[in-house]
Each structure stands twice: as structure tokens, then as C-alpha cells.
Amino acid sequence: MQRSSKSFFIILLILIQSLLISIPVNYQNDEVIENKDLKPLRISYFRGPGNYTKIENTNFTYRQAIYRNDSKISHGFYSQASRIYLNMSANETNIEAGLDRIINFKDCQDFRMNMICRMLYFDRDNTVLSSEIKNKIEDAMFKAKYWYTEPSEDDCIFWTENHQILYHTSELLMGQLYPDINFTNSGMNGTEHINHALPMIDRWLDWRGEFGFSEWHSNTYLSEDIAALVNLVDFCEDENIKTRAAMVLDLIAFGFANQYFKSRYATTHGRAYDSSKVGTSLSDPAGRDSTSEAAWIMLGVGYHDPNNRNSMSAVSLATSTTYSPPPILELIAENSSDYYEGWERSGMKISDAPKYDIGYDEKFWMFWLGMSAPISAQTIETTLSIQNTYDLKGEIIYGPEIIIDLFKFFSTLRGLTLSQYCDLAKAITQGVSLEAPNIYTYRTPYYQLSGVQDYNQKGMMSMQKHIWQATLDEQAFVYTNCPEAIGQGPQDFMGGWTPRSTFYKNIGIIQYDRNAMPLEVELVDAILNMFIGIRFYTHAYFPKWAFDEVRQDGKWIFGSKGDGYIGLYSYKTPYWIKDYELRVNSRKNAWIVELGSAEEWGSFEHFISNISQAELNINPLSLGYDIHYESPSQGKIEVNWDSPLLINDKTINIGSYLRYNNSYCYSEYANQNITIQFDSQILNLDFINGNRSYIV
Amino acid sequence: MKKIKPYLKGTLMVIIGTINTIRLEIGIGRIWINIIFGPLTYIFLCFSGLIVKNLILIQNNSSNKNKLLILLGIIWGFGFGFMLFYVLIYNLNIFIIVITIIIGLIWFGLWLFTYYYNQREITVKLMENLCFTFGILYGAILDTSFIPIFVYFFFIIAFSSQLSRDLTRIRKIESDNHPKAKKSNNQSNTRKYKTNDLEQKFGNHKILKLSLIFQLISIILLIFSFFTDLYSPILYLYPSVIAIIFLLSSSILSIKGVIQDKNNKIISKIIKIALAFELIAFILANF
């Protein structure tokens, strides 16, 4: 009832708007923008010092203008593109400083290269840049290295999913701008660069359309993907590429619509960092997701922070004249903000590849590297062969080269091939890869629970994965983790050993355990732990300072925030090591999380008394636990390490999921024709034919 | 220290037994519990075996008999209680309790055998052997009740090799009265004599034949084990081949000893080396 009346109101607004031709809207007298026809008007939030300020009647175009106007006063490198777009003089000193990475072939030079391309394209029309800085830019970009196959030694990672599209895009755009110029590093001219980049962009877009992102819902790297994709939409001369890039952007926006909650990208991430997931106190909260400004511009979800003026993705979106997300996505974000339940899958399982005509040879090497799978049993030989051919540094492909040397030694000792040994050590070699997760999300107005359902990598090691999260508020969110010495960083809360996690509506059961690896690998793990810090524990991130109230009842920890409640149970007795960290001195443990609200339970006391007195039986097994939990809200729950998830004796679907399965989209996995529907509006994304259609 | 060595060696076998079954979907948490608690409980069971051995040796001396019986009860009971505690706390395989009871029954059976048949030398050797080799089965059972066949093979290999060594081992004993005892320079009353006590009882011929049979059993099962479902068959191969070579050498010497009716002192030492390589093979088999 609540949802349908909201929808009616929104549709009514659209109808009223459609009667008007155009309404000029002034914003801080800096820029006059016009409301385009048939764009929905939404309430959007603008964060002033200390609190939120509500601005009525914004849409994508309006939010673009808001961001541009904040961005243009920044001296940051990326925000200079806003100034050039607005025909204002740019901070050329900072632009020149930003060229340093490109000139010296440093990692993440591609982020700068994309924004430089954007600036150059804007400057074609506005001619803001001085000839001096333009010469320096052109010099740097002609000497740049666009792919690992080109000459010059570098420290660059070309092959993660986001790096791939960034490099291909900058190569294409520079080629288009200077088709006849000889690029001094590669020895190719612009046209040759176009011919080199186009097939790879085409392939990358195909993979995203068919399988989605391997760096699923990354709150860091989707921001980079957005920047590259907006560049393609705005400047690519190939219509098919432009359209498909826009479609991928639509899918990213759809993901934001489904997963953003209370200004937080409140879901599982394939790659994430502690900086955005750990806050130590009110004065040092968890950082915003890098995607926050982009999500706000695209859909109005979350809020805009005027101090965040230099976001690569936000600047790109704010200065795009070609791309705008179809209004249906903003409607979905609005409509699903209170209630949502969704199942989705993205990426690929390594072993499933042959079913989809993906091989393990050099032709598909970029697919696997985009998945962080260079040393899996199926891909290790290809990786070493290519590394040898192009004299690439092992450290930037798979980490310290001593790892492979050790693998080779032990494989010889065991009479195995290297590939067979990598299969033996798959807890690491497969665990680091970003195999397809089955993602489950459940939302009410008071909380959101989202996580990877029964991951096939349970018990394996991961680098940066964030498996699950229960969110009540932007800062009041909870998750668990089992850290590991081997990892990128290593980090304290991201990555580590992957649990078997199972979720149903407001309940999650997360078990940590694993099989023994080959004992020499266990020995290396033990030695690394001695050097990096003994990490034989599991822990929960539970920031007491972010909640209105936190109470402990035995092994249950309860928190309330607004009208939302959370209870977290640990099978082994946890203890507070910091104000935001609960620790258990064991790598084997079971956690149970149950969420509730004032609407369901009334008082927090009532929630606590019911949950803490619930019947709970956990028996340790050889591997994992046998768990029987009588949830006061959902009933009897039974699960162990390998069994199905049973709720009141009914088997719950924990995978494999469809590509999308929610109220707005039902799409088979690996289906390149995705239809998103809300009321009478339909967005159809046909990746095979390159058709993007929106029907109102 | 020498007297308790076989009983302490048993705890090493417990760890080997645990390692040999960790590939059967046993979680890392469970493995650590078994590696810590398994040897601790097994030590008590072994010490109870030591008490039984002393009971057997002093069978006619009733004044110490009751004290030893009480001590036996305490140590075995403590071991059993400790094992029961950690089985219940960690929800372990109930078969561990059964196997602990079986060990107790075996000790009782051996004592009874000596009581009726007065074969003290054989019983003591069997007891020491079992304390050492049974550890591998105990360790395996800690992880799972579905013990793979190669673990049984390893047990039989270790048991046979140890027994074949015990049959041929020459010991130094102190004896005042033995005609062959040499007078020590420092002590006028104590005489040292090197002997194989079983050889004294059963004759060299029989002992060597029996030892040869057990050596051959070890060789055959070492070869058979390679063809079972080992996790690291190649790593197992290296030390097991060396062990087979040593066992073949000792077998040849045993045959020679049988033909010439002569006890070769080196046989026991060669089997000892073979046993060491067998243990390495057991460890590497599922490394």
C-alpha cells in the first residue's frame, strides 16, 4: 500500500512535468540549467556543514550542475576537467604535476590518462588550456605506455578489470584525437592505437554485458570503471561502443539502486579496503565509498558532500553531456528504498568457463586477470608463458616471484606439474580469484542485510573480498572477518579466510573454518603470521560509537540505531579488543546475526530478551558446525558446513542464482539481453545488438 | 629415560596418525585440537602400559603389586577422563572412547596372558611395541572414524618392523651370576653381559625366522601402500624406497643367519634405520 501510493505520487509528478515545456532552474546563480522533458523530479539531499540540507526537486541534470559548481573550485587534478568544461581557466600547475605518473610509467597512471583525455576533448571546444601545458600533456601522452605489450619498463598493473578499460579507453581516445601522430613509445600512430584498443574494449563490454563485473559491487573500483565508461559514451566515435558503454553504466546504476542503503554501498564487495569499512570513533568514522558521489549524481541516493569535489567518476558524470541514466533507475532507487529482496550473480566460476566458450589460453588471459586468477590451476601455465614472452614482472601479476619458485620446487618434489600443484594449493591460488558470488540482499526501512550466499570459495583465502554486511546506518554497520597474513596489505578487516555464509531475510549464519593446505604451505602461512603479526583469530566489526545503544548478553551483542536493531552471536566467547572490534581467539567460529526493528519488536529490550532466549544449538563438526537456531522472527533454522539452508524444514535457494532476480529484473545468468521494468517503464539492454531502449 | 622412550615415541605416532587423515575434510580447527590433545591423552594411556609392564615383570612380588595396580588405575583412569572431557567439549568422534577402552582391554589381556602362560619376555615386547605403534591408529581415529586403508598398513608396517627388531635386539643386562658376565673394573660385584633374551629362550634359528617373516610383511605393505589413496605418493616413495632397501639388507642377513645358525648383530641396527625412514614416509605420505 505504502509503495504503490509513493509510485502513484511520483508518476503524477512526471505527468505534471510533462505538460510543461521547460523550467529554468537557478542554482547559486552560477549556472542556469534546464529541466529536460520526462525527467523525474526527486527529493535530493545536500550535506552542509554538520547536517543534511534537503533540496527539493532535483534530477540527474540538476545534480550534475550541483557537483560541477562544487568541483570547479577545487584545485584537485580531476576537478580541473570541470573547470575546462565550464570554460574556466584550469590549475595548470596541478595538471602538470598529475602528468608525473604518466611520464614515469607508475601504477594507476591510467586514472590520470583518462582524465587528461577528458580535458583534451573539452579543450577542443573551449580552448582553455595554454599551449605550454597542452604541449606538455601531448608530450606525456605520446610517450605513454598504453598496454603491457608496448616497450619501456614500468610498474603498472594493466590487467585488473578496471585497469583494462581505463587503458583501452585512453588509448582509443588519444588515437581518435591524434590519428596520424606517431606515438613515440609504442611506435604506432593514432589509427593503429584505435585498431588495437577497439577490439579489447568491445570484448570487455561483451564480458560485462554477459557476466557482469568480477570486481562485484566494488565500492572503490566501480568509480574508476564509471570514469572510463563515461569517456567512451561521450567521446568514442563508434556508436556501438558508445551504446554498450552506456548500458554498462546503466547496470552499475541499477546495482546502486538495489544496494545503496542509508548513504552506504551496503553490500558485499569483490574488492574493498579497510579505509571505507572501518571507523574507529565519531571523529574518525569509516570513509565514504568512492562511488558515493557518482551514485548520488546518477540516482540521488545517499548525499552530496561539497568537500568531495575531486572524485574522478563524479567529475566525469557531472561533465557528461551524452550520458544520463534512464529515469526508471532513479524510480527504482526511490521505490526500493524501503523494501527490497534480491538475488543476483555476477562474474564466473573458473571451472565453468568452457560452458561459455571461455578458454584458459592467451586469448582469454585478460578475462582471467580481470578476475584476479593468474595462478589458478587452469591459468598458471598461460601466465608464466606470457610473463616470459613479454618479460613482465611477476610481482605485478601475482605477487612476489618467490611464490612461484616455491610452487615449482614443491611441485617437482611431489612429482606433480605446476598446474597440479596449484590445484593442491587452491586455497590460495583459487581463493585469490574473484569467482562468481551469489549475492543476496534483504532490506527494510530500518536495516539491510547483504552477503555472498554459500560461496564456492568457502575455506579459501581471499585478498580484498568483503563477504557480508548488516547495515542500520551510514556508520552503524556490522560484519565479520578472519584475517590472514597473505594478502594485499595485508588488511585487518578485508580479505582473509572466506566463510561459509548463508542468509535468509533478516538472518545470517556465518561459519569460519577450512581444510588443511599442503603442509609446506601451512608452514609458509605460519611463518608469515610470525612476521606480519599473529592472526589466528576471527573478529567482528561492531562500532559501538556508531550505535545509539550497545548491550551484551552472554555471547550475544546487541545494538540499536534509530528504529533498527541488530543482534550478533559468536559461538566462541568474544571479547572487546577495541571500541569497534570483537575478537575470538580461533580461526574456527560460527557467528549468527539477526536484525529487527521497532516496527517488528517494539522496544529494544523486547528484541534483546526474545533473541537472547532463543533456542540455539551449535555443535562443532570436523569441518564447520552443525547449527540449529530457533529464530523468534523466522522459525527453525538448520545449516552446517555443507548442507542446504533449511528454514522451518524448507530448503532455501542459496545458489546458483540468476543474473538478476528481483521485483524489477528477471534475467538468466549469462543472458546478454537484460530487461528492467518498473510499472509501465521498461529499460531494455541488448548487448548482442547494441540496442539500448527505454519505454515510458 | 630409556625405559619410557617407547611410550613417548607413541605420542609422535599419534601426530603422524592425525596428519594422515587431515585430508578427509577435517577442518583446521579440529586438526589443532587433535594435535594438542591427542598426544596428551595418549601419554597417559602409554604410561598405564608402562605400569602393566612392571606388573608383569614383578608378578611374584606381591608387596609392590597392589601399589602398581592402584597407580595403573589412576593413570589409565586419568587418561580416559581427560580423553572423555575433550571428546565431549569438542564434539569429537565417539569412536575415540571405544578405542581407549580397547587399549585398556589389550593391556589387561596381555597381563592375563602372562599370568597364565608366563611368557613375560614376549608380552613386554608386545606391550612396548603396541604403545609405540598403536599411536598411529589412535591419531587417525581422532580425526575420523573412516580410516583409510593405508593407515592400517602403516600400523602393521611399524608394528612388524619394530617387532622384527625386538626379536633380534641384543641388550646389555647387569648380572652377578651369569657365567659369561664380564667383571667390571670399577665395581667388583656387578657384571655386564650382552644378550638377546628371546634367543636364550627360543633359540637363534626360530627368532631369526620370525624376524624375517615380519620384515617381509613390512616390505610387502610398504609397496602396497604406494598404490592406495595417498595424498602425496611421490613424497612417500622417496623414504619408503630407502626403507625397503634397508629391510631387504636385513632380510638377507636374517636368511644368512638362519642358514648359518648365527645371530648377526647388525640386523637390529639396520631395521632401526629402516624404521626411521618408514616414519618419514608415513609423515610425507599425506603431507
What can you tell me about this protein's structure?
The complex is a heterodimer of chains A (696) and B (287). Helix content of chain A is 35%, strand content 21%. Chain A is built from 22 helices and 32 strands. In chain A, the strands form eight sheets. A ten-stranded antiparallel β-sheet of chain A has the order 20-21-16-12-11-9-8-7-28-29, with no helix packed on it. In chain A, strands 14-15-22-19-18-17 form a six-stranded antiparallel β-sheet. Chain A has a five-stranded antiparallel β-sheet with strand order 23-24-25-26-27, with no helix packed on it. In chain A, helix 6 runs parallel beside helix 8 (161-177), helix 8 packs antiparallel against helix 9 (190-211) and helix 10 (221-235) packs parallel to helix 13 (312-318). The longest helix of chain A is centred in the first third of the chain and has 22 residues, at 190-211. The two termini of chain B are 30 Å apart. Chain B has two domains: 1-146; 148-174 and 193-287, Four Helix Bundle (Hemerythrin (Met), subunit A). Chain B has helices at residues 5-19, 28-57, 62-89, 95-117, 120-143, 149-168, 197-202, 204-226, 233-260, 266-285; strands spanning 171-174, 182-183, 191-195. Chain B has a three-stranded antiparallel β-sheet. Classes of the chains: A alpha+beta (696), B mainly alpha (287).
